[in-house]
Specification:
Length: about 425
Amino acid sequence: MATAVMWFRRDLRLSDNPALLDAVTAGDGNVLALFVLDPRLWDKAGTPRRDHLVASLRSLSDAIGGRLVVRHGDPADVVPAVAAEVEAVSVHISKDYGPYGQRRDAAVEEALECPLVTTGSPYAIAPGRVLTQQDRPYSVFTPYFRTWLEHGWRGPVDAPSKVEWVKAKSEKLPASDAVAGEDAARKQWERYLEDVSEYGEVRDRPDLDATSRMSVPLKYGEIHPRTMLSDLAHKRSKGAEGYRRELAWREFCADLLARNPEAAWKPLRPEFAKMEYDEPGDAFEAWCAGKTGYPIVDAGMRELAATGFMHNRVRMIVASFLVKDLHVHWKYGARWFMQQLEDGDLASNSLNWQWVAGCGADASPYFRVFNPATQEKKFDPAGEYVRRWVPEFGTPEYPEPIVDHAEARLEALRRYDAIR
């Protein structure tokens, strides 16, 4: 009897999962579902990310009759061992384009005695496929987006109808009270679709509960962007068009990182290697703790610490403040975000930080320095977001600003002029 191993990673779902369909075919319907808790990833994840992952794995296991096999350890050791236990004909994955993921998968493939079969990816269009007419990659988003739309993508596929999930020894998962998984992601997306037409009007308002919160399900592959794009195709509104553009931006970031693995922590624009930065010290600690004396910055950092989430507009504000008001290298902020964010995705995180810092391939101009007071007035006009997270604002307990924004802006521009 043939058996195939489906090694789940960032595809914790049964529907629209081409790798799983291939595993079912290869194993004549007999599939061992495997997830490896890799210390290299688990140890770097903060509590929100761990809790969500565990809840998602429990949901996936429930969906297949409790037969998800979970093992701890180095995938290069674990995956071949599990494959050998069931005499697997093949191991199936969706491709990982991250720097570590590519190294890990190469090590697993070398150690396996059966084929490692790669089908699909976490993206509607995999990195490396959106190219110019000269077959070159894009470094600017707008032309990338036009070609991305022209390229198109396949429609979603159904979950396999008949699978015999193979039993094997599994280790216990830690406890988690989070609600996660494929069904939860789908319900969340369906609810948001009812309001997607308003996306353009409310997307920048942290005081409103108006974002889709789909970055987390996308991070874990509880839903595939193909599914979302298929649903959006039936929506004729500027909001739907804007949301589609944001999905493309996610894929643009993945494309950039796949071609430039060093972009995780190094600037894509080489001249920024000479930029003068301050070492993270007391000011950085105040930023992390949400005690800078700038209400919307502090609100964002406290929301992050309390929930593992931060509104996207506020992410830009706090990132600009760290880099251009406190003059701290963006990599320190990116690392802090990756530790804290439930949706921590290396490509999106690092390339968005580079956008704010002005050092990415398609970056905000360095002279665009977010004024926290102006941003707060525009996007939190009634102060509801600030009051929610900084209740002591306006009292003697709230700290004075740790820097003068106007002076800090001029200093940031001086440092930029020095590398031009």
